């Protein structure tokens, strides 16, 4: 029987490598960081109600592209084009125009109300289920649920 003196392969380095360090993903992450920084710089100079409602979307071919939730806000943003372009130049970004597209805000997620009380009929069915089962643990759970319905009725 031969003895295997080879050492197991161990990767050099310290732990996992972030996915943002790989080719196309790295350039995409870098572009996203740059656009986020530009977004913060540009929106910071806008008046308060407009600042929270519009979104900076992209910088493409010397155009700063913004998204506004309504035509009225888009018009207000277009009036500030000179201010936006001077701010962009101040932070080192070349842009010759501002484009504003009307795009409604994505709907906010509506979380359903899960705290609806059990009806007296449901409590009655739970007590009947508890009486008909032979499993003591399941019977206890049914009765506990039924007691919650009784408490919420009072």
TrEMBL record:
InterPro entries: DciA-like (IPR007922). This is DUF721 domain-containing protein. It comes from Dyella kyungheensis.
